[in-house]
Amino acid sequence: MNTLLQDVRYTFRLWSRNPGFTLVVVLTLALGIGANTTMFGVVNATLFRALPLPDADRVMTLWKSPANDPRDLNIVSQPNYLDLRSATPSRSGSSRSRGGGPSWPR
């Protein structure tokens, strides 16, 4: 424990000799920790937590793609969505929302 206390005192002595460098180091660490915390919060909220919906495992996304390139995903238009909804004998209901494209092609 005594060695640790000596190391801490030595560290603060070195930092006080060069306050500009110390400020840059502390700000860099603060920025890195803040960015890391923010990214973890975003990833945790979007990927790790379940959707706040009942039966979230039944939620799906519809995409359309040409037959010659199935990786070219496009959003289903409103008329096509209405046709699909009327042709599907679903008892649980469906809805449509506006959103961005896929995160990555599958």
Summarize the structure.
The protein has 106 residues and is mainly alpha-helical. The chain has helices spanning 2-17, 19-48, 78-87; strands spanning 63-64, 74-75. It folds into 2 domains: 2-48; 53-98, no CATH class.
3D structure, described in words:
The protein has helices at residues 2-17, 19-48, 78-87; strands at 63-64, 74-75. It is mainly alpha-helical. It has 2 domains: 2-48; 53-98, no CATH class. The protein has a two-stranded antiparallel ribbon. The longest helix is centred in the first third of the chain and has 30 residues, at 19-48. It is elongated. The protein starts with a helix and ends in a 19-residue tail after the last helix. 0% of the residues are buried. The model is unreliable at 101-106 (pLDDT under 50).
Q: Descriptors for this entry?
A:
single chain, 2 domains, mainly alpha, 3 helices, two-stranded antiparallel ribbon, 53% helix, disordered C terminus, 106 residues
What order do the SSEs take from the amino end to the carboxyl end, as H and E? HHEEH
Neighbour order of strands in the largest sheet: 1-2
Number of strands: 2
**Low-confidence runs (pLDDT<50, min 5 residues)?**
101-106
The helix count comes to: 3
Helix/strand structural class: mainly alpha
| Total of domains | 2
Helix content: 40-55%
Beta strand % = under 5%
Please tell me how large the radius of gyration is: 27 Å
What would the average pLDDT be, to the nearest integer?
A: 80
* Largest sheet entry: 2 strands, antiparallel
Gap between N and C termini, in Å?
55 Å
Shape: elongated
